[in-house]
Amino acid sequence: MLGSLLSGAGFLGTSPEMLALFVGFGLVVGVLFGFFGMGGSFLVTPALLMLEYPAPVAVGSGMAFVFGTAVIATLKHHDLGQVDYKLGAIMITGTTIGIEVGRASVYYLESMGLAGGVISVAYVVLLGGVGAMVTRDALKSDGEGGIDHEATDRDLDEYEIPEIAEKIQRTVRIPPMVTLRGDVRVSAWVITAVAFATGVLSGFLGVGGGFIRMPAMIYAIGVPVPVAVGTDLFEIVFSGGLGSYLYGQGGGVNLGIVAPLLFGSALGARVGSAATAVVDADEIKVYFGGMLLVGSVAVGIGEVGSYLGNATLELLGLVLVIGAAVVVAFGVLYAAITSLRVTRRRRTSTAD
Amino acid sequence: MAGLEIPTWDPETALLIGAILLEAFVLYVGYGGLERLVGPSLMRLVVGGDASAR
């Protein structure tokens, strides 16, 4: 219903209005991804579902977008020496099998006519859960959601291994054991299990899975934060590429959606990552958590609207999802500009 | 019913994924060049004066 209002002739089967919407949404998603290191991609699939794209297209195009974004981000992290290729290579196997299980589930549910509903419910639970966790952490100000911007400046040897990771390393000693960057020694089976679980999630929801895999790498495997971020992105290049290929074979990847989203997000990610140098993430994190919670409610409203055939509720859901992301992205930009202006004023007064 | 499947070679899909990969590389290089070219002037415009706060 809503999708038909916005459709029309245009580039790659996408109308000019939709192209502009995708570039703009990509820009917003890019700012969030560049700043928080996670969270941008899992707004895309629900938005596409609300625009009434079929579930395999929404998930497949979302995954292809994640793939393109991960390529760009990995190039940057490679330059910073934050990618553990050994860890990435082991994770690829588990994630690949997991993605295929998740993807097969989507097509199975689609054949039963349940895919859109089940995926939306999964998003409501996931966005709500992660949103509540990030908001709680932000209010406690101990900062565990997203990237700890100060942490990325430290040497890898200086990182303390979380207690739970040490416990796993001591108890699960099934060979083969591997040594990772930051002098971490862990069973390859632990890595494979983490990779499989996040792969299923990626394949089912069309997300990179970074918001689950990154904390899992830190807390279950015990790798330093920057290595977790860089390796996660490297791994997404392969898992996202394979997932996109599999969805593409079934006609699930729409270049008319992915190309404009990527065009916007590549620019937004540069702006977002530049903002990390001048803005304290904890100041913004509470809004990020709030955005995820609003996103969760919005997907729920959109799904109810779709079930009842109520276009107003569908539109409200879409406006809430995009609106919440736009508000937080502008919050990041506002905080960055304000911080730069304050720094400049201080420098000017010191010089005087 | 969809089951688990081994990826088979499909030139059309490979071209599609290749196009996304190419776009990502072009955007990385293109926006990087653009940042160097107009970044300083844009920062002066937004922040005012010398904004080398980083």
From TrEMBL, chain A:
It is found in: Cell membrane; Membrane. GO terms for cellular component: plasma membrane. Keywords: Cell membrane, Membrane, Transmembrane, Transmembrane helix. The chain crosses the membrane at residues 20-44, 56-75, 113-134, 186-205, 217-237, 257-279, 286-309, 315-337. It is a multi-pass membrane protein. Pfam families: TauE. PANTHER family: MEMBRANE TRANSPORTER PROTEIN HI_0806-RELATED. Belongs to the 4-toluene sulfonate uptake permease (TSUP) (TC 2.A.102) family. This is Probable membrane transporter protein. The lineage of its organism: Archaea, Methanobacteriati, Methanobacteriota, Stenosarchaea group, Halobacteria.
From TrEMBL, chain B:
This is Uncharacterized protein. It comes from the Archaea. Keywords: Membrane, Transmembrane, Transmembrane helix. InterPro entries: DUF7512 (IPR055934). Pfam families: DUF7512. The chain crosses the membrane at residues 14-34.
